[in-house]
Amino acid sequence: MSVSFVQHRIQAEARARKLALERSGSAEVRIADIYKFFPFRLFGLNRDALGDLAQIEFEAELELCRANPEMLEQYLDMKRGGFRTGFISDTYWSTEQLAQLLRACSPGLTWDFLYASCDHGSGKSEALFEAYLLEQGIDAASSFHVGDNHNADIKGARRHGIRPRYYPQASAPLASKFQRETSIFELLCPDQPSRLDCGARTLRRAVTARSAEHSPAFNLGVTVLGPVMAALDAFIEARRAALAREGARVAIGFLGRDGLLPYRVWQASHGETGAYVEINRRVSLVGSADTLEPLSELLSRVVKIDAATFVDIVKVQPPAVMKFFAQYPDGIASGRELADALPDLIDPREITDIAAGVRTRLLAYLRANIADFDGCTDLILVDLGYSASVQKSLRRIFDREGIRIRLHGAYLLTLDDAFDDIADDDTAEGLISDRIVTPHVKRMLIRNVALLEQLCCSDEGSARDYRGGEVLREGDQRPAAQLALANEVQSGTLAYASRARELAPHYALRPDADPVVAARWAAAVLGRLLLLPDDDELVLLGDIKHDVNLGTQALAPLLDAGFINDCIVARGLSAACTAPAPPMWLAGSFAALSPSHAYLYTLFGANRLPANLFGEAQCGTLQVGLFGPDGQASLEAVSVYHTGLGDLRLRIPLSRRMAVATIALPLAKLTRNGLLHGITVQYGESAAKAAESSNVKAIAEGRLIDAGLERSGRQFRATTEDGMLLIPVDGFEDDVAIYTVALTALDHDRILTVEGRDGNGVPSATLTWRSASGAQATNGH
What we know:
Elements: H1 2-24, H2 31-35, H3 50-64, H4 69-80, E1 86-89, H5 95-105, E2 113-116, H6 117-120, H7 128-136, E3 144-147, H8 150-159, E4 163-166, H9 172-188, H10 200-210, H11 216-245, E5 250-255, H12 260-270, E6 275-277, H13 281-288, H14 293-300, E7 304-306, H15 307-314, H16 319-326, E8 332-334, H17 335-341, H18 348-369, E9 378-383, H19 389-400, E10 406-413, E11 427-432, H20 439-447, H21 450-456, E12 463-467, E13 470-473, H22 480-507, H23 515-531, H24 535-541, E14 545-547, E15 555-557, H25 561-571, H26 573-576, H27 586-593, H28 595-605, H29 611-614, E16 616-627, E17 633-643, E18 648-655, E19 662-665, H30 667-670, E20 673-684, H31 687-692, E21 697-698, E22 705-707, E23 709-712, E24 715-718, E25 724-728, E26 736-745, E27 751-752, E28 755-757, E29 763-765, E30 768-771, E31 776-778
Parallel strand pairs: 1-2, 3-4, 5-6, 5-9, 9-10, 10-11
Antiparallel strand pairs: 7-8, 12-13, 14-15, 16-17, 16-19, 17-18, 18-26, 19-25, 20-21, 20-24, 20-26, 22-25, 23-24, 27-30, 28-29, 30-31
Helix pairs in contact: 9-23, 10-22, 11-12, 11-22, 11-23, 12-22, 13-18, 13-19, 14-17, 25-27, 27-28
């Protein structure tokens, strides 16, 4: 209802201004003129409510408006300097209402003149400045005007010889982020109004305006990560305060490594009331184990592992395990293979002894780093998220050691369906929980959270063990430039948190007053960065590598636009949206193709991308030539599909026994002019397995041979009616290969799907294609 009200109010103003412009040549109107065009009956009102609606809107304006301290100080400086000062505003509020609004924002404010455009029937872009100069008897050259609208304030003042100063409410990059955030908010929180945020964006504008320009990484921390971490900080404090009110003696531990940035923000505002503790999933899980099952579960998630890494995890080298690795090339096996074999390779009693040692060393570390550890009743564990695996392991460790401290997870993002096995006296809660966004959205955010992890992370290796209350770390493989970039982002985040604490009281703003609203906007701000990054952010962040951890030395790329393009060519848009990692930053990889690709991926993750719109539909068949190594040829009919974006796809399945060396694709039969998006190949033991494979390989453009075609980059033109593209067929990696060709036809409208029927009335693919313009073609001609 509120959204409809706002949109009708906006439309009423547009109609009122249009009519005013037609009648008087000026679009200036009063608030009552606007509400004359409002649909009262829709909201159960009659036209007698016009005055009430206008007054209620003005009261909302009084409540929401704030004086800009910098502008107020400059205004008062001018007054103290003896200059005549006043206000000129393009507004539908009358001069009397404008005066009331100004004094509500700054009690006792005075002025020498006050101009409201609606009372003069002309705006600053028209003749309002001229009226001011004439009525006040002021020489334009000695007048000075400050404004936030470039067209009305700056150009309007210059046109009359007045010196202007431009003071935008938000820089162009920040305004662009706000616009994208609003779009993301309405996707992620569709039933909630996106206009009221308890002043969060007002505070961000103020902080950004007061922050000197630094590096792009620092500015990212100020404008984006800072507001998210400030919301998380308020969330942690609310949890601590609630426990303290119950009489609990509370300690707070920020889990390393990506809990470092939340810890630094907390430390800056709350002092040494929290501790940074380097505990990861691997160490805590081994310490909590009393069977092989937790270790097997951990190892099953490792892609590749060798003996040295295994020993580093479990601290022993059983002979049977060493023999297991010796059977594999270079001594490297998959984690799944090792996990399956582990019960036959290691005595369960060994893992019990290993776990006991890890527990002893871990608890000594906690006592050395958390003040009065044994005296606290409740320990809050802070992390980015997601399924509370460290918290659950610590609970098992505490229980085995007879420690009765209650554990409370305070996470940024949570997979809430993983919390049902949390101990009864413990709690786990996320700032961005499934009560804030849907589980579909949450999984999309977590699929792309590797970027956030790297920006929040410490610049030291992950914990592998403890000795004498100190942490022992792995080596860190991340490039020095990446660590420097993350530190710069963190510095900007801390600068935002500090400046926001300073400025919020000046503006009477409390962006965290409503925890639910704060959480929704944290989701929107973080979601915008992860899902709809702008080009500057892609350039800044695109080279970051993700530290896979789990005892490995692997670094995985965040971005890989080529991989996503190949996935779209081979499997279609929807399948590409579910591509496994790497790349770790899937949304960023889509954005590297185009902003539209990123938005389509976001729609998919929000469950707003209908499969029958963006999937594929068969629209005909095409005869392709298959040539063997001895030159013998055969013709095969392959299906042609069109996609939701109007492109064409051809899938050419081949089996090893067909002995095909070259595919002759008659592109001219499809279109004389077009764009070739790519050619890919997938392998599998069957056609179905090959089609589902995410292991997609692109055929290099340089390997393609033109016959009656001219190609320039992706664009091609057929020089003959039989223009063909010759595609080499490589050696098979499995029994079946599927070659997929993706292209856009440029010489006709998009082809519509026309369903035919055979003699029994059963639907069958037709050979007749009908374009959107009504033109008809047969057999692809």
